[in-house]
UniProtKB/TrEMBL annotation:
<protein>
    <submittedName>
        <fullName>WDR64 protein</fullName>
    </submittedName>
</protein>
<keyword id="KW-0677">Repeat</keyword>
<dbReference type="Pfam" id="PF23754">
    <property type="entry name" value="Beta-prop_IP5PC_F"/>
</dbReference>
<dbReference type="InterPro" id="IPR056454">
    <property type="entry name" value="Beta-prop_IP5PC_F"/>
</dbReference>
<feature type="domain" description="IP5PC-F beta-propeller">
    <location>
        <begin position="33"/>
        <end position="114"/>
    </location>
</feature>
<dbReference type="InterPro" id="IPR001680">
    <property type="entry name" value="WD40_rpt"/>
</dbReference>
<keyword id="KW-0853">WD repeat</keyword>
<dbReference type="InterPro" id="IPR036322">
    <property type="entry name" value="WD40_repeat_dom_sf"/>
</dbReference>
<dbReference type="InterPro" id="IPR051242">
    <property type="entry name" value="WD-EF-hand_domain"/>
</dbReference>
<dbReference type="InterPro" id="IPR015943">
    <property type="entry name" value="WD40/YVTN_repeat-like_dom_sf"/>
</dbReference>
<feature type="repeat" description="WD">
    <location>
        <begin position="82"/>
        <end position="114"/>
    </location>
</feature>
């Protein structure tokens, strides 16, 4: 058993049921650190999803970490982040049978996304049926300007360093 808590500094803390802090996660994404407002996992607890105050969704793979939380080689990997709404996400859930993520925002919209790549599938109340079988093309809602971003495996939030730091050149 594990408890997850989302915090205003965009940190997710994973706790044992005895109250011991096991891991702190900071998202590695192109979006600035903003308060996290919603968390969910799939029923087998292999993925962790977080929604933010700015309308972003982040997805982590946590299966190997949960097998042995004490092992340093079993890390949690952030796999994907995308902009889902233009306003705060108030709830989200992962529907495993169809492999979709459903998000709800304070803007009043409820949207459906493909869980593996963050592709937009539609919204509740749209005139057409959801097409879940052929997800080969990318569309975005009118208020979402960015496509989903896959996080490279070697990327980490705290260790990202610039190869060419800015330096003052007084001769220029």
């Amino acid at each position: 058993p594990l408890l997850a808590s989302a915090h205003e500094n965009s940190c997710i803390c994973l706790w044992s049921i005895q109250g011991n802090l096991l891991k702190e996660l900071l998202p590695f994404s192109k979006y600035p650190s903003v308060p996290l407002t919603a968390l969910c996992t799939d029923s087998s607890t292999k993925i962790l999803l977080a929604g933010s105050k700015e309308g972003h969704i982040m997805r982590w793979s946590i299966a190997s970490f949960l097998e042995d939380p004490q092992s340093s080689k079993n890390q949690i990997k952030e796999e994907l982040c995308w902009s889902a709404h233009s306003a705060e996400i108030v709830d989200l859930f992962h529907e495993e049978e169809k492999n979709v993520v459903v998000t709800a925002s304070i803007d009043g919209s409820v949207r459906v996304w493909q869980a593996m790549n963050g592709y937009y599938l539609g919204y509740f109340g749209q005139p057409r049926k959801f097409e879940l079988s052929n997800i080969s093309w990318l569309i975005l809602p009118y208020d979402v300007p960015n496509i989903p971003t896959k996080i490279k495996e070697e990327s980490t939030h705290m260790e990202k360093k610039s190869e060419y730091p800015l330096m003052l050149d007084s001769d220029r």
